[in-house]
Amino acid sequence: MSTASLERAFADTRVSNTLWTQLLEAGRSDPAFSLIVDNAESARASGDTVLEIGSPQIFLIASSSREWNPELSLKVAVYVRLVRLTDESRRGWWWTHPSDTARLVEWSKNDARLFRDGLERGLRAVASQGLGDLVPSPARAP
User: Fold this and answer.
1) Which of 37-41, 59-63, 134-138 has the lowest mean pLDDT?
2) Which CATH class for the 2-134 domain?
3) Which of 39-43, 64-68, 123-127 shows the lowest per-residue confidence on average (mean pLDDT)?
4) Domain boundaries, the chain
5) Is the dihedral of CA 120, 90, 29, 17 positive or negative?
6) Is 134 left (phi over 0), alpha (psi -120 to 50) or beta?
7) CA distance 6 to 114
8) What Å distances lie between residue 124 and 3, 11, 14, 45, 133, CA to CA?
9) Nearest CA among 45, 40, 73 for reference residue 59
10) d(CA 107, CA 116)
11) Which of 30, 37, 45, 114 could serve as a FRET partner for 100 with CA atoms 20 to 30 Å apart?
């Protein structure tokens, strides 16, 4: 019963679409971030760098393997790669966000409300972290 509500919540969230939306919103909120949303061929014609975004990975990770009913942390992770088209150089990162911990029953009660909220927060945090990796802050700029 607990896992069924988590599976529903995961499906309802449409993780890849939600991450994409969060990245777009984060990119639009920063004037230093120039964003072209299109397929790879159009990007090659109009830009010099492409961001390849892997499938988001979602984990509930036990804090201890020795407990029967352990605390679980929700972790959102996605691998991204920045490809410069002029010389095909690549740079990759893992963007991750761990949540607070809760037991499985807490993650799944009330139609998995805690899980849904944690997943949404995690995707937003990953998008924000991504923007920070892609756009140098004024303090890091040469």
Assistant:
1) 37-41
2) alpha beta
3) 39-43
4) 2-134
5) negative
6) alpha
7) 10
8) 24, 17, 14, 30, 14
9) 73
10) 9
11) 30
